[in-house]
User: Fold these one by one.
Assistant:
Number 1:
Amino acid sequence: MAYVDSAKSIPLSRATQLLRGRTTFLLGGLFLCFFITLALGGETFAPNPPNQIDLLHRLSAPSLTYPLGTDHLGRCILSRLMAGTALSLGTALTTAGLILAIALPVGLLSALCKGWVDAVLMRIADIFLAFPMLVFALAIIGYLGASLTSAVFGVALAWWPSLARLVRTLTLEAASKEYVLASRQCGQKPLSIIRRHILPQILPPLLVVLSLEMAGLLLVLSSLSFLGLGAQPPAAEWGAMLNEARPFFAERPSVVLAPGIVIIFAVLSFNLVGEGIRFQLDKRKPYRW
Amino acid sequence: MKQFVFKRTLSGIPTLFGMTLIGFLIIGLTPGDPIEMELRRLGVSFTAEQVEALRVEYGLDKPLIQRYFIWLLDLFRLDLGTSIASGRPVLELFKEHLPITATLSVLAFVSSLALSLVLGTITAVSQRTSVSTSLYVLTMFLVSVPSFWLALFLLAVFALGLGWFKLLQFGNAQDLILPVITLTLGNAAVMSRLVRERIIAVMSEDYIRLAITKGLSRRAILGRHVLKSILPPLITNWAISFGSLLGGSVIIENIFNLPGLGQLALQAIAERDFAILQAYLLFMGLVFFLANFAADLTNHWLMPQLKEDDHGVR
Amino acid sequence: MVEIPLLQVHNLTISNSAQNNEPLVEGVSFDLATNQRLGLIGRSGCGKSLTCHAITGALRAPLAASSGSIRFQGKDLLAMPFAEKQQIRGTGIFCIFQSPGSALHPSLTIETQLLETAGNVSLHGQAAHHALLQALEAVSLPKLCLKQYPNALSGGMKQRVMMAMALILKPTILIADEPTTGLDVITEHETLQALNVVQQETGSALLFVSHDLRIVRQTCTSVLVMDAGQLVDACDLNQPIAPDCHRATAEITGAMERLQL
């Protein structure tokens, strides 16, 4: 008898199981599909043109024409949020791609060349890791000047080392497999070994991790946009929308809070998917009481 | 122990050195001429000779490597240079702005540490009660909330709605309450998930079964057996989360309009005041470095029987 | 007056709540009397260990005892709240598990782990230390071990540390769940000797679980046979095995005879 006081806790434990297992994954996946649809066809679904200025209806309450109300320039908030999906998610995706583009070669080189190459590359990664992430991103943005591009570069530069370390660990593990050793002894060229044997092994776990990191990337990028260091107005990026609306916070808090709820849902959907995957992979059975 | 401190310090030196190099390059490789830019910004008319004279004055005419070592020497003398925008020494500006950031980070760190231990333990140990399930959902939600939104939300409720706090002005210690709460909630959610993760991992171990079979009380099992195992990796994580608090304080200082280091840095970005930005990067890096160092030492002191590779040293 | 048996397992069924409550152990019933030594044998995976875990209360989460009862001195262990169970665990029922390698806490010294065991039977300070030394001597472990962490000890030594814990706790029922798994023959012998010492000193009832009849024979005379989650046979090892015994019993005894050549 586990530490379950049998009868009464079983229905509840079922609920918890469901909540944490497949349902989490499905719920997150559903949200994600919704956001992807919005990103692909955001402008066409929008009730109003996202940049249409209507100065007669500034900061208006939700109405039929403007379902979520309007911002300080009379632009439809809902339309802007929908139109901004592509930009917000796209930025995070680009950043993730950029991180992978740095981390993958570095990690592979480091693990396969070993010796001084490994030592130097990992030392460099250590130096990058020695700064707090956001602080480092800020410094890079300061160096490049505030813009969406520099925000993407800043975050990618601050983020790659931890992923490079992961690539290195995975590659070391993959390269020590018997069949990789065997094909090396058969005289295959290093590049073809990487392509045929190592990449297929390390890419799946890497992509899972990277998709989990998307939640974090979304948070950081929207924070930077909120600070005015990322996407610049009038771009309909979620964080930038909040930033634009800040002066009117005291007047109409909802104008500021509404775009934020979309960010929360986007981040939450990535987190839910990640949690679902982790739950499925979790084979541990803790003792309980 | 002494040997460990020595080894750890020695291995930290190249990292520190590399940090100064990166810090230096941020100003050394500035795109465009900061002097010209500053003069343009101030709207002063200037000649090429005047620019040149200023370049010599700021030491910008020498080769990069020479400038690096001059700069490094100055750094050891705590001479962080002069802010181009305000003309004041960077060190002076730092002394002014540091207390807010330090108070904010340390308070938030301590409170989120305590909160995360409680939340993590409840959500990990009693997985089947409605309390722990709802707490778990809450932490899941909180990690998905951007800190700036949380800050604005709390402001909307407590400052605009209930009128308990003043909006966007900093006068006394009371105005730090909301900022600390905001930082704490976000950070505690992230940390509590780590605590929960660690506890579940440890509770799956055979030695916990023995502890239960021995008839130990819940308190002894959690307080001795579980705690002893979860601490080392958690301490390492705490150091990292202190780093993210230092970074996160930028956002909070900005929203609550607190005159801290983060605000100073943001202003420096806007004014392209690289001396401040550089000092900010190096200072935060150093604090983060020391936090990691302290974490490693604590771990070594807690579990001398483990090799340093098993935990700590990242 | 009818004496209540020390331990009464009645119709115990263990099932996996995550997989349609498929039973892994079904309808197991047996009694254990004071001072009795009982063997429980069966091939690997037949549910011996699960039965032990159910009695000690160390089943892992999706597994649970779905029906039946386990009564210790008349009280049902399955219906008891955690705190009350902790009163019985240790001093009432103690279990020496298989795989001693992972059983001890890796970052507490042997001394700490033994001392907290002593604390559980209200031995503190000098008395506790005395009990520790006595227990160590009984299982022939050097005093030096006290200051060490488990990773410095061999598998057999760790298992003897577990025996020392049993000596300190003096449980009413001692369960040994394949205590010799993963040990070489010499260590196996030492471990069994230590177990004998423990049993003589504490006067516990013993439930000895093994898949190896040779070892069981050294400690017990009456034996229960399990197969595929059910209790199928009971026999006395001093008697010749009856020809009408269950197939599982015949298999095990047959295998043993062949090994002895």
Number 2:
Amino acid sequence: MSPGRIRALIILAVLVLWEALPRSGLVPVLFLPPLSLTLAVLAADWPTFAAALGVTLSEVAVALVFAVGGGLLTGALVGGLAGPRRLLLPVFSSLYAVPLVVLYPVMTAWFGIGAESKIAFASVYGFFPTMLATAAGIRTIDPQLLLTARSMGATPAQRLLLVILPAAIPTVLSGLRLGGALVIVGVVVAEMLIASAGIGYLVTFARTVLDSPRVFAGVLLVLLIAIGFDLAMRWVERRCALWSTAGRPQSAPAAAVPT
Amino acid sequence: MQPLAELNRDAAPAPRGMIEVSGLNHAYATRQGPVQALENVALTVGQGRFTVIVGPSGCGKSSLLMMLAGLRAASAGQILCAGRPITAPDPDRVGVVFQEANLFPWLTALDNVAFPLTLRRAPKAERQARARAMLELVGLGDAATRYPHELSGGMKQRVSIARGLVQDPPVLLLDEPFAALDEQTRMAMGEELLRIWAATRKTVVFVTHSLTEAVYLADEVLVMSARPGRIIDRMPVPLPRPRSYEMMASAEFGRLRDRIWQQIKAPAR
């Protein structure tokens, strides 16, 4: 059996158990509402869930811009220039280990309990891995490639745009994947702690009133966001890193090249 | 030949060689004190000549080549190329081929060859036409759309040579270009390089530590001593051209090869 088929079977088994365990009475419905009930609640109250999904997605989108944009820029700077690297890299590496969630209450004090505090927190949360991965990616570039570019008369700007950035893409992409995942985590966690809207808020609110089906409906939506992000990243990786996938089918050069 | 005629008309007085190096010294600091890497190196390479620099490892022959390429500054001395000093990389005058092919893995063979023209913002049609012509020259006309990971070691190095020639510089510098290749490929690449050289009439400076390669390729072999690197012998290679594999078995070839070996083995003090 192929790994893909086994994966599909595992997912199917989880879904079946999700339905069967509470239905058979083995697990109380309060702990685990059946899948069908969860989906029914999701459908019945769709306007509420859709609004929450919209709030969460927009927060994730804006935080992604800050985390990824800031992470790429700072990472390029820290990775590319010795001065900023010696100054900042030890600090950033240490900060990465700090559980940043302790800062979240401070952020609500600064930015209020609306979207701004979620965006601020998730941006900081996703910034560090993106930045560290970009810095590492730029530092691991083969210096011979830069020497070669220099021998061909490349200016510093051309070396950055035409050599360093393309060479850093694979590492940067893995940073984006990690950073993006943490942005989603950051937004949802922030919504669950102190908020008035979003899926995280919905989940926490339903939990306090012991409304399990709504809790699981929210969890399902978060899962969908994460899967959607993963699919998007895979698409980007396929587009950007064609060259790094050795063993891809070879094109027929003779036919493809008009001479 | 048109370019040479123009060169002689423009430059007054006419340069003795395409490359002229005089009084080149290089020292660098280490924790143990200053190290003299090159000592009073002087050399002249005539237009269209194939010169090979050979010497023991660490003699500074690669450093010397990097200086000729404008990629490294010497402590003292002068390097003239086509009558003008070399102070920075100048792809109009000098093309460089390194030990590793150093192709950009995200570009096709064609785009790699065209890269120097991309840097100068040449029109796309011109870039592609030039790059295609260079790939044809090195015998890789049908590999234009392949990526470096789809090419063998020898093919990569041929792409690298095509890239070094794409701006049509009068000088081509090669830094142990075949050292990373297996023996068979290495022999074939030497032959290939001589064919390309004959077709383009470039002035070539080729660094190697292989004595056989040096004698097989060169018009003149410059032998360098161990550190501090000095040129201890200038040996013309009177073997006829085109060179052939059979010549390597000749007594003359052996005598030339032995003359280099005797000097590298027991460096002059």
